[in-house]
Design goal:
The protein has 19 helices and 8 strands. The protein has helices at residues 6-18, 30-35, 42-54, 61-68, 75-79, 86-99, 105-117, 127-131, 146-150, 153-166, 180-185, 189-205, 216-225, 239-244, 273-280, 306-309, 311-323, 336-344, 356-363, and strands spanning 140-143, 170-172, 210-213, 235-238, 256-259, 286-287, 330-333, 352-355.
Length: 364
């Protein structure tokens, strides 16, 4: 590879020196559990990244696959005794691969769709047009997100219904894609920052003081990533946090349920209590945690661009996560990517996977 970032090379070299090859990452990595090769786990990806950056390893199909089957779930970072930030290294490596022309066709199509249409699916409507709402000025704004708007509209419809039922004066933020997908796949960060700047200006123009989001990936972007590049002059809440602060009167629901922590909402943004507090407000529900929950929650396999480029591996990760929910009839989560991928991993199962936003609207 050419045009290597020296800063990136130094960071990866340091990670190679610090990593003790202990293999603790193997015990938690969702892609390793599915693929079962050392090159598909954190310690293997560190070596591959260093080899790519120095030019000692060619960017062939097998190497690129191992870099791009990482869901960026961050569980390896949590488990690493040497505190190596594997996610940062993988994303730096992806950025260098893309800048040198090594981009997966499906990822290229997704990025170009975002640049041309403002969403990864190539839909010509904007989010507000698809939702058939007229943007206005209000202190509470809802950012629907691309996936919920264009692929699981029941989530966005439920969110808007909740605002109406609670009597919350609200508006829908007239924005484009949050940019999460572009960052995860290694697209030029200058384009991502332009997207950030556009969205923040649009939100400010509508007088929004609190932005509510129902997508974990979008939430992480506005909460954790946007402030690194642009000023964010408004409060950012996930819908679970918004609901947790409300005096909800929910109908009874007698069902065995569990909760799946999305990686972007949990390990990346540290939101664990709010969704569980909302679930506790449901009378009659029999709630049981999965064996791996909160900080140790296993990834569903839907993030990091894996689902679009490697659907088979993504499905295997979802199946592994579903095994932990064997005793539950209802799996609740708080991200459209998790909803879609967990459903993708099911095969003739009578279980129901639902977004907490939809469930709250049903019972409100």
């Amino acid at each position: 590879m050419s045009k290597i970032s020296i800063k990136n090379l130094d960071k990866v070299k340091n990670a190679v020196n610090v990593c003790t090859m202990c293999g603790f990452c193997k015990s938690v990595c969702p892609s390793f559990k599915a693929i079962k090769w050392d090159s598909s786990v954190a310690r293997g990806r560190v070596i591959l990244s260093y080899g790519l950056l120095t030019g000692d390893i060619p960017a062939d199909a097998s190497v690129i696959e191992n870099i791009y089957t990482c869901t960026t779930c961050m569980d390896c970072v949590r488990r690493c005794p040497s505190k190596v930030d594997i996610v940062e290294i993988v994303e730096m490596c992806r950025a260098d691969l893309v800048s040198n022309g090594h981009i997966l066709p499906k990822h290229k199509a997704v990025a170009e769709n975002i640049l041309n249409f403002g969403n990864p699916y190539g839909e010509k409507d904007t989010m507000v047009q698809r939702l058939k709402v007229k943007p206005k000025n209000a202190k509470v704004g809802y950012f629907p997100g691309c996936s919920a708007t264009f692929r699981t509209p029941e989530t966005t419809n439920a969110a808007l219904s909740i605002f109406r039922k609670l009597g919350t004066d609200h508006t829908v933020a007239d924005c484009k894609c949050c940019g999460s997908v572009m960052q995860r796949i290694g697209w030029d960060n200058n384009d991502v920052v332009k997207m950030m700047d556009h969205n923040v200006k649009a939100i400010r123009k509508q007088g929004i003081e609190t932005l509510v989001l129902s997508c974990a990936g979008c939430y992480r972007m506005f909460k954790e990533e946007y402030p690194k590049y642009v000023d964010v002059p408004f409060k950012v809440l996930h819908m679970a946090e918004f609901l947790d602060a409300q005096d909800l009167k929910l109908k009874e629901m007698k069902v065995k349920a569990t909760y799946h922590d999305p990686c972007h909402l949990g390990r990346h943004a540290h939101v664990y209590d709010a969704p569980r507090n909302v679930i506790k407000k449901i009378p009659g529900i029999e709630f049981t945690e999965m064996a791996n929950n909160r900080e140790t929650s296993r990834c569903c396999g839907g993030g990091g661009g894996v689902r679009s480029a490697y659907p088979n591996e993504s499905k295997m990760m979802a199946e592994a996560r579903l095994e932990e929910a064997a005793s539950a009839d209802l799996i609740i989560t708080t991200c459209p990517f998790c909803v879609n991928n967990l459903r993708f991993g099911m095969s003739g199962d009578a279980k129901r996977v639902v977004d907490l936003t939809e469930l709250a609207d049903e019972l409100l």
